């Protein structure tokens, strides 16, 4: 029954004796009494066939009862993330013998991690991040031989990382960032041969970089930043051949070892001295490189697509190579040594944003982008000598929605655009839309719902060819209310771009239905509360359905016209 807009408390369900799967996520359900035990969970202990419980994204604001220890042995997955669960995790949780997945992240949990969780030998995933848990990480977890994902980040955990974690032979992702952990990184960590992600950042860890990293054959992501680690980065780090993300920023490291295959390297705010190793020229896939706030000297390595090459590609950034100027910098067209034509954004130093895929030194900052010969969507919508037909506009809307879906959902942390508008949507030679100028939103208060809000404004602008800042809009009427009134009165022809009305011999009905559906979707994305806005996957699905119907209706008209002609 999720996602929906159900409210109130969950009733007693003990009579549903054959219930196997309970899906109540993404509603507005509340607990029986604020900050009291969630009694409906006790009733579920009578459902002896229950395998999955989904309660995430509600507003329970209550406590987990000790009776959850009475759940049937058939229970395998318990989802109760981001739903206001408070208090401690009952020690009785250790009685759910066959539990595989425990998802309690994004709540208000306090107290200790129960040692009894070590009895859940079938656990493969533990998600307790973004809570207020404290105390030590219990060594009892070391007995969970099937554990693949352990997320304890963003809590208040203290003490050392248990050395016995080296016994978690099935562990794939170990994320302990943003706690108060101390002491050394256990040297036997490198025995975890299947570890892909290790994030120990933002803690109080000290001591040297552990030796033996060459045993990490499949690790791709390693973050030890914001600790007090010191010494040298071992020279055999290049033997971790799958490593593409390495962050050691804000430590006390002195030297950099050999590196290969990296896409992300951040060793800023350490005590590195001397010259930047020439071996960095071999990092042909490097997209993010930060060595700021060290004691390095000399020239930046000139191999690959370095700043030296960008000067040559743009004829020393001549005015004739300049494409334009924006609020944060200027764009130049350039041709790299392999013949690839690129757009290069040089940032104004007084207004920098975080970027990926840039090169810089003290006086120069630039971002290399794919060149978009057809310019921005803003230009195509608001220039008098350019025109986009309805199908082109619909395709562009789908392209942008797909880009947002990738940014919001593909990564461990969402990438939030924060400034989605037609001028940041660029069109390639095939009129395919690409989204640029996005920001990384992992740790701030920004939300993907803001992008959904901006997308609906863009969708309204695509259909009406009117900017929200148009002079006709003010305190009494907005673009939203203008379109809303036309939908209620069935007069959308008065608000859509006049260029889309078409000829009388064309399929007026199909075009009107398509535009009406697009405007309705835009209004649905426009709800005032961010929690009520549909997610980007639903937007993509709806737009693709609108396109399929529009094309099918057009094909019918075309077939009828051919038959009439015959």
From TrEMBL:
EC nos: 2.7.11.1
Keyword Transferase: yes
Compartments where found: Membrane
Molecular function in Gene Ontology: ATP binding; protein serine/threonine kinase activity
Keywords, alphabetical: Glycoprotein, Kinase, Leucine-rich repeat, Membrane, Repeat, Serine/threonine-protein kinase, Signal, Transferase, Transmembrane, Transmembrane helix
Organism domain of life: Eukaryota
Recorded GO CC terms: membrane
Domain Protein kinase, chain residue ranges per copy: 317-551
InterPro entries, sorted: Kinase-like_dom_sf, Leu-rich_rpt, LRR_dom_sf, Plant_receptor-like_S/T_kinase, Prot_kinase_dom, Ser-Thr/Tyr_kinase_cat_dom, Ser/Thr_kinase_AS
Top-level EC class as recorded in UniProt: transferase
Principal location listed in the UniProt entry: membrane
Signal peptide, first to last residue: none
PANTHER family reported for this sequence: OS04G0122200 PROTEIN, PROTEIN KINASE DOMAIN-CONTAINING PROTEIN
Protein name: Serine/threonine protein kinase
Source lineage: Eukaryota, Viridiplantae, Streptophyta, Embryophyta, Tracheophyta
